């Protein structure tokens, strides 16, 4: 791996060289390196591009890293990764995709991640997207994430896209069984002429299921963002959707949530706000010696943390 | 007018006989009675069913009542009413439709109301829908309301549908100019197998425009409700959407709002909640001597007031 690869790996997965435990590094549509552990077995799919990750029941305090790197111009890949997580696990899964495109052609990653989370298991899943490079070629990422939560299962799903992705269409679907819980945190910054669409379906099927969506975004320059977070309650359940967006320059933001109750014991709440940075916040930081631009960056950093 | 007519008039327009000022009473698709005033002139349209209401500039503290009664089974009407309100007015407009259907056939009222509200004018518009009768025939109301607000104009739009309407599809559109303001209050109760769909587009076009949507609903039995309140900010403006629903029995409620900012100085906020009546609220009233059902009714009354 070269300098660019290492920089991308740090940006998207916080990886400083080879990680501990199981991992699978994909580079320019090829397997770069892989390691399974005793409890986490990674195998290539034989019928389509992608991998299967089997995590044995009872696996605790282990992690698996599966970053994807694209450093060539003109790549267009579709990858299917399936996660089979046994009962009573407690694992961290770190995904993410970094594109360095110096060329004239578009480079694109499409990934479909499907999780089967066993009874009473806890999963922390994080996925960072990052793009860079001086070429005119676009950097595009279209991730789909589908999560099946069995009874008492829990997932914390964190997605981050900060700078460099020209176009993204995200789709996230969670089906929560009895007493299952999901926390979805989305952070998104677009600039230039970028566009981002994020669609979510959170289906609270089981009694006692609960979910929270926390979405924070910043749209700068003439970028465009559209959000469709949908929360559907089919039983005695609790769901909360919270979307906050900062709009700047000539940007446009649409937020179109849905809360649907199909049961009188479903309790669903939604809040959304779109606005610019408050002038007095900038002023306060400027009196502490920051320039207007530094103050703005400080506020945006805090907002997206 | 007979006893049923008078009861309906009281229910939908708070009218105890003939009102003061201008009015137009429509009954079973025919003109029942009409009066213009010096400043408010009502004329029948010549090209299609409906009336034109011209309100002279500077008209203040006057009102116009335009209730619609349907007491026959099998009526299906489409009515176009246009309101031309001059500058610097301050008027109350009371509409509403009551259907008493004792027969086997469906009785249906479709109304399209269009308002042109002149510079700096204030309008209070209220519209109540009510249905009754022992027949198997359905009672259906599909109102459309379109409001053009000129610079500095204000409208308070209050719609109420409480009991008796089997099916309703409401559409409300407001286009607000510079410094114009709209307050939209919607109250809706459905029961039995009723269905209600309410769609709104509030377009904040002018600088300084602001709008609030306050929607409160109760869905009982196996009734269904769907809400699409949309607020679009095209300039420096402020918009607030608030939807609260109480769900009971086997009812279903979907709330699909949209806030869209096309300008960095647009500030838009949305809040929605769906849930059942809090158990401790009922308990508290029961300790004061109310039965459970009385407590429930008391809470619903308060919620829809």
From TrEMBL, chains A, B:
Domain SUF system FeS cluster assembly SufBD core: 86-303
SUPFAM superfamilies (alphabetical): Stabilizer of iron transporter SufD
Family of the protein in this entry: Belongs to the iron-sulfur cluster assembly SufBD family.
Coiled coil: none
Protein name (record): Uncharacterized protein family (UPF0051)
Superkingdom, taxonomy of origin: Bacteria
Organism whose genome encodes this protein: Papillibacter cinnamivorans DSM 12816
One Gene Ontology term from the biological process aspect of the record: iron-sulfur cluster assembly
């Amino acid at each position: 791996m070269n300098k660019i690869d290492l920089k991308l790996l740090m940006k998207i997965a916080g990886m400083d060289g080879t990680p501990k435990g199981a991992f699978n590094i994909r580079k320019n549509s090829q397997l770069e390196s892989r390691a399974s552990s005793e409890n986490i077995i990674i195998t290539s799919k034989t019928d389509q591009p992608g991998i299967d990750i089997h995590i044995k029941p009872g696996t605790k305090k282990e992690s698996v890293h599966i970053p994807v790197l694209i450093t060539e111009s003109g790549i267009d890949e579709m990858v299917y990764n399936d996660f089979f997580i046994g009962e009573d696990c407690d694992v961290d899964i770190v995904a993410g995709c970094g594109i360095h495109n110096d060329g004239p052609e578009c480079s694109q990653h499409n990934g479909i991640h499907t999780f089967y989370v066993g009874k009473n298991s806890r999963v922390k899943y994080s996925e960072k997207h990052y793009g860079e490079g001086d070429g005119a070629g676009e950097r595009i990422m279209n991730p789909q994430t589908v999560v099946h939560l069995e009874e008492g299962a829990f997932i914390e799903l964190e997605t981050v896209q900060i700078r460099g992705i020209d176009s993204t269409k995200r789709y996230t679907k969670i089906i929560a069984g009895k007493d299952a819980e999901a926390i979805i945190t989305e952070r998104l910054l677009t600039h230039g002429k970028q566009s981002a669409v994020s669609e979510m379906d959170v289906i609270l099927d089981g009694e006692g299921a609960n979910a929270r969506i926390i979405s924070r975004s910043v749209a700068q320059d003439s970028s465009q963002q559209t959000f469709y977070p949908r929360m559907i309650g089919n039983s005695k359940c609790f769901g909360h959707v919270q979307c906050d967006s900062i709009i700047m320059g000539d940007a446009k933001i649409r937020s179109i949530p849905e809360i649907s109750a199909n049961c009188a014991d479903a309790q669903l709440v939604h809040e959304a706000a779109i606005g610019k940075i408050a002038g007095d916040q900038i002023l306060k930081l400027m009196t502490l010696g920051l320039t207007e631009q530094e103050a703005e960056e400080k506020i945006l950093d805090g907002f997206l943390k």
